[in-house]
Structure formats: structure tokens, C-alpha cells
Amino acid sequence: MISKYVQIGTRIEIESVKRTTDEYGEITRKTYRSKLYDIESEDVIKIAMPMEQNKIVLLPVDAEYSLCFYTPKGLYQCLARVIERYKSNNLFVLSMELETDLQKYQRREYYRLSTVLDMKSMAIDPNTRLDEIEQVQFLGTDLTFDNGIMVDISGGGARFISKVQYTENSLIRFVFSLFVNGRVNEYNLVGKVLKSTPMENREDSYENRIQFVNMVNDDRESIIKYIFEEERRKRSRERGSF
């Protein structure tokens, strides 16, 4: 329940899901600050429209954002969509539909979706340059991959189970498919191994956590879109079960 964690006046950081390019050509994500105005239901909240340089920022209807709530129990994050804009008691208000449940997170992490998906991975020769890794995708070289199961994914990385233990801080090729916007998207990404540990009670199985590196913006945005769609379907099923 969202009311268990936040209350009227709770500070909120609003971060655009879509990335933009700044005047220096750097990829950034636009961030705004606001406060919780009202809790309409477990799925809909109202927040004050953010301000920037003393001007109201009219976030577009149907745009999707990552919300970070500053609570006494720490930072909590969810994904949400703008469904209405209006003025109430001289305050400009955004009505936002929550697409995911709140989850605790560390700053600068992306929202993680729990899942069960087939994927493949392969260690990359530590002497291989990143530009050489990207070229292999297009050469169609016959490569030997290890099968695994992805158990969560975000716009910044993933966690998966495999029969292979990878060296921490090494690079791997990470291959999987997602159903996004009505079609299957294939991903062939490079990941940095943050941790690879043996699993308890599962012989010869390892839990691996990776961070995507040198990832193109389109791939990241489509993964985040997939997370939105899956969480939306999940919440729809949960509401229909009552």
C-alpha cells in the first residue's frame, strides 16, 4: 500500500524515462522535483506540477516517469504515467497512475522487474576491445553461448542464473529477447559482471549480477518500455482477481 510509505507533502523526484541529448552531446535524463499533493487510490496519486526556473513544467499526458519518494524509511521508487493535468486551489496538479508497486532502491539504480526469461551468455576475452566486441555482432561468427535464466532486469543491468561462474569485473556478451510494443526485440548486449556467487542448495548453479556497458539509448528505452508494459499487465491481473 502506497499510503504505508508516503504521506501528503512527501518530496518526490520525477525522472523522465526517455533520455535526451544536452548541448554538449551527452545523454541525460531530465529530472524534476515536486511534492505529493494527494493519494486518490492505491493506483492514482496527485502531485504538484514541478517548477523549473520559477516556471511551471507541463509534463505531457501519457508520458511515463520514474518517481522517487523521499520517506523516513529511505528512498522508494515506482514507475508512473501522467493521466491528467488541472488546477486546484491555485495549484497546478498532475494526476499520475502508478504502473508498478513501490520498491526500495539505491540512488541512480533503475527500477528492476522480477521475471523468468531464457537468455544466453558468453565470457569475452579480456584482451578484446569494446569496438571489436560490437563488430562481432555483425560478422555472424559462430559463437558458443551458455544457457541461463534471467530473474530480474532493469534499464541498467540484470541478474541471471547459470551453470557458469564468471570473474567479477569481467565482460560478458548477454543475449535475450523481449516482447515490446507488439513484437519480439532481440538484444545482444555487453555486461560487466558485478558479482557471481554459488547458489545455496543448487549444485553447480551461480547467481550473476551484471551492469550493461556501452548500451545504445534505443535498447535501454525499449527495455524500460517492456518493464512498464509487464508491470501494467501485472497490476491489471491483480485488480481483476478481486
Structure write-up:
This protein has 242 residues and is mainly β. The protein folds into two domains: 103 residues, Pnp Oxidase, Chain A (Roll); 125 residues, predicted glycosyltransferase like domains (Thrombin, subunit H), CATH 2.40.10. It has two helices and 15 strands. The strands form three sheets. Strands 1-2-3-8-7-6 form a six-stranded antiparallel β-barrel. The protein has a six-stranded antiparallel barrel with strand order 10-11-12-15-14-13. A two-stranded antiparallel sheet has the order 4-5. A hairpin with a 3-residue loop joins strand 11 and strand 12. The longest helix is centred in the C-terminal third of the chain and has 24 residues. The radius of gyration is 20 Å and the shape is elongated.
What are its keywords?
242 residues; mainly beta; Pnp Oxidase, Chain A; 2 domains; six-stranded antiparallel beta barrel; 2 helices
Describe the protein's topology.
Layout: E1 11-21, E2 27-39, E3 44-48, E4 51-52, E5 55-56, E6 64-71, E7 74-88, E8 91-98, E9 103-104, E10 113-123, H1 130-139, E11 146-153, E12 157-162, E13 171-180, E14 183-198, E15 206-213, H2 217-240
Antiparallel strand pairs: 1-2, 1-6, 2-3, 3-8, 4-5, 6-7, 7-8, 7-9, 10-11, 10-13, 11-12, 12-15, 13-14, 14-15
